Structures are given as structure tokens and as C-alpha cells.
Amino acid sequence: MARLRKGQRSHAGRGGVSPPARALAATLPPAARPLAGLRKPDIERRLAAALQHSDGAAGAHCIHELWMRGEFAVNIEAALAALWSRAATSIPDWLPMRYIEWLPTAYEVALAFSCARTGRSNVYLVLLDYQDRSRGPHGLYVGMSHYTPAQRFDQHKAGIRAAGSVLRRGLEVLSGPTLHLQRIARAEAARIEAQLADALRDAGLLVAGGH
């Protein structure tokens, strides 16, 4: 499975948090950064409330905003561990399961690409395990498919038309940076796939795929 909690989400209200509030938070993409206008103490208070009420979507946006601001790795790791332990079933797919140093860069680079033509193709990113490399511990695979990113990841891991890097090193789909590049025209997806891979390499990331 692409994520351990796939198909296990629940939006039932609990802990005094209303279902409409949680549903609204869950629909907001991370690139929207709805908490960007808040001070750090305000975000931390919201994160504490999200943990108290097991609200994975609200907690994910809090962690994402702190992450994009360059919060210390130890703090992001602690927040991720707390949210996963208390709200795993309601965490949106776009929040990574582990700390990734260059995630803000991946968002910045990916958000520079856009496509107005709709279609059936999806551009996706997979986090790769490069702990055995001097440039590790993580790299990226850039791909495109008419399958959803989660479905294509499962195919890679099952050896179905698999890229060797994903089969051997794939950890999880990083869906957040390319949420805006789903259901687009095939020709545009192919162009963006190649250009995005080059742009991520130029930004200093260890990149596979993009062809």
C-alpha cells in the first residue's frame, strides 16, 4: 500500500471538533497554506488542540506550515510522531510520514509548474531511501501515469513496469507538491515530468526518473 492508513480515514466528529470544520480543513491543499498569516505560538496552540481532539487534518496543516517556515527537524519529527500516534486515520495523504529536509524546496520547485489542459495523466513524486549514499538520506523519483500516484506506487513495489529505484528504494508517495498536476493532458504531463525532474536536480536534490 502507498500509505499504511490508505482507506482507513474517518471524518466522524470527536473531542468537540465539529465534522464540518474537519471536512473543510481536509479539503484544503497544503500549497494553500491557510495558516501562513498566523504567528508561530498561534500555530503551536492549534497543533496542541488538534492533537487533543485527534484531528489529523488540522494537525497536518499546522505541521506543514511550521515545516515550510524551516522549523527545526527535531520539532517536526516530534510533531509528526505525536500526530501519527493520536490521529493516524484522519491525516491527509499529503503529509509525509517522516521528516524530509528539502520538502520546502520540493514544494517551491513543483509549484512553479502548471497546466491548464485537463486529461487523465498524473505527475507524481516518490520519496527514495538513499541512506547508503553520501548525498542521502532521501532522494526523489519523478514519474507520470494515468494511474493515481498511490496506485502507481503500489505497482512499482509489486514489480509491475517498475522503476528499479522505486522498487528497491521507494518509501512513500509525496503527493503534496504535485497535487495541482493531477488529471492533466498526457503531452503536458510528459513535458512537466522531464522539466520538473531537471528543476529538482538543479535545486540540489538527488533525483531519479523524469523521462
Helix-strand blueprint:
Elements: H1 19-27, H2 40-52, H3 56-68, H4 73-87, H5 103-110, E1 118-129, E2 138-145, H6 149-158, H7 164-169, E3 170-173, H8 186-202, E4 207-209
Parallel strand pairs: 2-4
Antiparallel strand pairs: 1-2, 1-3
Helix pairs in contact: 1-3, 2-3, 2-4, 3-4
Task: Write a brief caption for the model.
With 211 residues, the protein is of the alpha+beta class. The protein is built from eight helices and four strands; from the N terminus they run H-H-H-H-H-E-E-H-H-E-H-E.
Number of strands: 4
Please tally the helical runs, counting DSSP H or I stretches of 4 or more residues. 8
Q: How are strands sequenced across the largest beta sheet?
A: 3-1-2-4
Shape: globular
From the alpha carbons, calculate the radius of gyration and give it in angstroms: 17 Å
Structural class: alpha+beta
Helix content: 40-55%
Uncertain segments are 1-21
Can you write the helix and strand succession as a string? HHHHHEEHHEHE
| Beta-strand residue fraction | 5-15%
